[in-house]
Every structure is written in structure tokens, then in C-alpha cells.
């Protein structure tokens, strides 16, 4: 019986290595097959998606093509009617113009003057007239829209006014502020807010030539705005965007530039609706987020309402957040100013302005049922009262004090006397002793000579001894006794001079009409006559 040859270990090892190598090859082939299968599957899915997209676009183009054909056919069929209507309108304007030329006096009414200038297509005269009637802006705004309908080409009339404004703006002409305001009135009347929504899906109401001229004007205007970013006013920014929306020029400008104008001047009430008219519907959420980050919650409420995003951005939550931020700002201003008067005033102004903005926003969006403003109104009333009182006190402090009234018998006035507190209160008597006022001279002078010279009381005009001029000035006969003189109110009453011209007493016996000083309680004069005079 034969036996099998023994199997060596090397052969077994080699066999195992060959199996491992084949296994790796098989696994790699499997991975490559899987990768290729996935790749071809993704290609097939992509091709199918693109095919479906092309089919959808083809259907959309077909529907648009059919709609365009229908629109063109309708416009073509309506051309005779429109032509006859335009001819009738031109004939009406012609008759009105002839009637106006035949009437040299004309009409002084606002509407008639505006219509006359519009019929003449006098853009310069129209702007001047609008500027001259700026104080009547409320009736003027309504009459301009009616007057533009009387023009043969309203778009060309307004465009010529803007061409004049832009050319004068580059030349730094005076009076640009008024002309800017007048052009703003014209563009608002030509393109009212209601027309922004109606324009969607409709062709322009102006000719292609007018559209090209408008694009040139707005391009020049944009170049001027880029050169004066710091001096750009909110009204001019709104007017620029209004022209872009009205003449459908959005495609000519960078979207970032238009968005920056919207964000920088978002405080304008009509900016939110302009942003929606510019086609920022899909990006209004990002714009509102940026407004909230910049602490412009009030503006965010207007933008959210204009874009229909009130569920994503609840107005009540934004208002409460704005109220909290305004309180923090007022407190910060007060602390940074060390609670000074200026810091207190600024803090109260910030708080008052924020309260007014909240109340206005609540009223505009009719949120009274969700956001109560009773406490805010009370607080606003308190702040207004404090502000009014502060103005009154500062105005009273700034007025110069009136001069003292003259005595009742004076020739310059007849009001009550204005007594001032005495400046001799450090002495027991109202009038200091004679030896304190004038030290004892080395040589005794006679009393008549001693009182014959003028003596000036403090804060009083020169007072002379009772002489004839004194009597004539007050209309009384001179007497050394004050009882003979009509009782008058003086700042310093005349001393009772006796026969020897010395003061005999510190009080006037029976006279009681002197109310400024209590002479009855004054101590007797300390002057004692010298032995030589007794």
C-alpha cells in the first residue's frame, strides 16, 4: 500500500498568500463596481432632473409665449380705441390751452395754475411754482397728481424737472433744497404707492426713449451720490429709489448698492414699501435681521409688515425689545454723565423719543389690543411736563432783572417803591452814629456847614439837603420839618432836622406811612451836643 507524499509547509504558505492576493483583487473590483454604479446612477438622476426642469421651462415658455401673443393681440385690437381716446384727450387739452391763452387774466387758484403749467409742459415754471407754495404742501400734494394728468407726457415733464435738478446739483447752485423737495413731490405724484404693485406683470407706461433718458439721468445722479455719501439726505435717497422703481431701472444698478441705501435710510416710513417694490421679497428676512442687530426694531416692524413676515418677526416682541433697549440706553447715558443736569436732560429726551416712536408704531399697525400704551402715554406726559417746566425756568433765569421802581412821587414812575434791605444792619440804629460816620474833627464846625455838602447813601442817587430845588422837584414848599412835606415812600427817608439842623430823634413821631423800616424801634441818636453848643 503506497503512501501520499508529505505536504511541505512552504507550499501551504504560498497557497494562502495567493488566496489573500486574489481576495484583495476581488474586493477592489467590487469597490470599483460600486463606485461606477453610484456614479452612473447620479448621472442618470441629474439628467432626469434637468430633463424635467427643461420640460417645465418649456411649458412655462409656451404659456408665456401664448400669454404674450394674447397680450399683443389685445393691445393691437385696442390701438384704435386708445388712439381715439388719446386724440380726444389732446383735443381737450388743446381747447383748454386756447381758452387759457385767450384769457389774459387767468385764475389765481392753485389747481388752475398747476394745470396750466402742466399743459404747457413747463417743468421749470412748475418747479418754481411748487417751491413758492411750499407752505401749502397738504393741498398741493393732492393737486399735483390731478395737474400731471393734464400734461401731454407726464413722464417727460417730471423727467425734465429731474434733469434740471441733477445738472444744478453738479454745479452747486443755490436753492437745491427747495428744488429737491419739489422734485420729490412730482415723482410721488407721478408714481404713487398704489402703482408699484400694479406694475408687476405690466409693461411700462412711457416710451423707450423716455426710459433711456431716465436711465442716463439716474446714472449721473448716482455718480453724484457716490461722491457725497456723508452729505446724502434721507429725502434724496428715497427720491432716488423712487425713480429707480418708477422707471424700472433696478437692473442697471448693483443690488448691494440699493440694499445699502435701504438699510442706511430705513427710518423713512416709505422705505419698507420701496424695498418690497425693488424685488427684495426673498431677502427681506435678512434685511430685517440686520435691522434688529443694529437696534432698529421699530424699522424692523415696518419692514416685517410690508413683507408679510409678521409671523417670523412678531411686532409685539420687537416693540418690547426696543423698549428695553431704550431704557438701558437712557440709564447708560445718565451714568456716563455722572447724573449731571446735561446727562439727565439727554437721558429724558432719549426716553421720550423712544416712547413717541413706540406709540406711533402701535397706532400705524393697529396693535392697541396686543400692546397697551396707557402707561407709556402717562410717562410721556410726565416727561413733557418736566421738559416744559425746565424751559420756563431757564427762560425766566435768562431774562434780565428789572430796575428798581422809582418813588410814587417821582416823575419817572408811579408804582410802589422797591425797598432794599439796609446795609447798615451792623449798627444798633439804622443810621450809624455821627461820630462813626465822620470822626470828630480837630476844629468844631457849625452844623449848617457840616450838612450843607452833598452826601451819598449806598445804592442811592446823590441826596442833597432840603433846599429850594428839592421843594420844586416834589411840588411842595420847603420846610425843615418833614411833617410839612407830603408823605412819600423813599428808600432812605429824610432825617428829621430841627432848627439847629441836628437830628433830634431816630423816629418821626406821628408819621406811620413808612413801612420799609421800623423807625419807632430805633435807638435814639447817640450824638450828644458838645458843651460849647449847650
UniProtKB/TrEMBL annotation:
BP GO terms, sorted = cell differentiation; flower development
Record keywords: Repeat included?
Answer: no
Q: What spans are recorded as compositionally biased (Low complexity)?
A: 407-417
Q: Which UniProt keywords apply?
A: Developmental protein, Differentiation, Flowering
Q: Where is this region: Disordered?
A: 383-422
Transmembrane stretches in the record are none
Name a Pfam family for this protein: Frigida
The family this protein is said to belong to: Belongs to the Frigida family.
Protein's name according to its UniProt entry: FRIGIDA-like protein
Its lineage reads: Eukaryota, Viridiplantae, Streptophyta, Embryophyta, Tracheophyta
Amino acid at each position: 500500500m503506497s503512501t501520499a507524499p508529505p505536504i511541505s509547509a512552504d507550499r501551504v504558505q504560498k497557497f494562502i498568500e495567493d488566496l489573500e492576493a486574489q481576495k484583495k483583487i476581488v474586493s477592489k473590483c467590487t469597490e470599483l463596481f460600486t463606485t461606477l454604479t453610484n456614479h452612473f446612477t447620479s448621472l442618470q438622476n441629474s439628467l432626469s432632473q434637468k430633463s424635467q426642469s427643461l420640460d417645465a421651462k418649456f411649458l412655462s415658455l409656451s404659456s408665456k409665449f401664448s400669454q404674450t401673443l394674447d397680450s399683443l393681440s389685445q393691445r393691437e385690437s385696442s390701438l384704435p380705441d386708445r388712439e381715439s381716446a388719446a386724440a380726444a384727450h389732446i383735443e381737450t387739452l388743446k381747447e383748454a390751452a386756447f381758452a387759457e391763452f385767450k384769457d389774459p387774466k387767468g385764475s389765481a387758484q392753485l389747481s388752475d395754475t398747476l394745470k396750466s403749467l402742466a399743459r404747457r409742459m413747463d417743468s421749470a415754471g412748475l418747479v418754481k411754482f411748487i417751491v413758492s407754495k411750499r407752505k401749502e404742501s397738504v393741498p398741493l400734494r393732492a393737486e399735483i397728481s390731478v395737474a400731471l394728468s393734464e400734461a401731454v407726457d407726464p413722464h417727460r415733464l417730471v423727467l425734465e424737472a429731474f434733469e434740471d435738478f441733477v445738472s444744478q446739483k453738479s454745479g452747486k447752485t443755490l436753492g437745491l433744497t427747495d428744488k429737491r423737495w419739489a422734485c420729490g413731490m412730482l415723482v410721488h405724484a407721478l408714481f404713487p404707492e398704489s402703482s408699484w404693485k400694479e406694475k408687476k406683470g405690466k409693461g411700462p407706461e412711457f416710451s423707450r426713449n423716455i426710459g433711456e433718458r431716465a436711465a442716463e439721468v439716474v446714472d449721473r445722479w448716482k455718480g453724484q451720490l457716490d461722491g457725497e455719501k456723508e452729505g446724502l439726505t434721507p429725502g434724496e435717497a428715497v427720491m432716488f429709489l423712487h425713480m429707480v422703481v418708477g422707471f424700472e431701472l433696478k437692473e442697471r444698478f448693483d443690488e448691494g448698492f440699493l440694499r445699502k441705501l435701504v438699510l442706511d435710510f430705513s427710518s423713512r416710513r416709505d422705505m419698507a414699501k420701496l424695498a418690497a417694490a425693488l424685488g427684495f421679497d426673498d431677502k427681506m428676512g435678512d434685511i430685517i435681521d440686520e435691522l434688529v442687530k443694529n437696534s432698529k426694531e421699530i424699522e424692523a416692524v415696518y419692514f416685517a409688515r410690508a413683507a408679510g413676515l409678521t409671523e417670523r418677526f412678531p411686532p409685539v416682541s420687537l416693540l418690547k425689545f426696543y423698549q428695553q433697549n431704550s431704557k438701558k440706553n437712557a440709564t447708560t447715558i445718565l451714568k456716563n454723565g455722572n447724573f449731571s443736569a446735561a446727562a439727565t436732560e439727554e437721558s429724558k429726551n432719549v426716553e421720550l423719543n423712544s416712547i413717541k416712536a413706540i406709540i406711533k408704531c402701535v397706532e400705524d399697525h393697529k396693535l392697541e389690543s396686543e400692546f397697551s400704551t396707557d402707561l407709556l402715554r402717562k410717562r410721556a406726559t410726565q416727561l413733557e411736563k418736566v421738559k416744559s417746566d425746565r424751559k420756563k425756568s431757564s427762560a425766566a433765569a435768562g431774562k434780565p432783572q428789572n430796575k428798581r421802581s422809582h418813588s410814587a412821587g417821582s416823575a419817572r414812575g408811579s408804582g410802589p417803591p422797591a425797598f432794599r434791605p439796609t446795609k447798615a444792619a451792623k449798627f444798633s440804629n439804622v443810621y450809624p452814629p455821627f461820630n462813626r460816620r465822620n470822626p470828630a474833627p480837630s476844629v468844631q464846625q457849625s452844623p449848617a456847614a457840616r450838612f450843607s455838602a452833598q452826601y451819598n447813601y449806598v445804592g442811592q442817587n446823590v441826596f442833597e439837603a432840603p433846599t429850594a430845588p428839592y421843594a420844586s422837584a416834589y411840588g411842595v414848599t420847603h420846610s425843615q420839618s418833614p411833617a410839612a412835606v407830603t408823605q412819600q415812600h423813599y428808600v432812605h427817608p429824610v432825617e428829621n432836622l430841627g432848627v439847629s439842623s441836628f437830628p433830634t430823634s431816630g423816629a418821626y413821631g406821628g408819621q406811620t406811612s413808612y413801612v420799609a423800616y421800623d423807625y419807632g424801634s430805633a435807638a435814639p441818636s447817640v450824638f450828644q451836643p458838645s458843651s460849647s453848643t449847650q
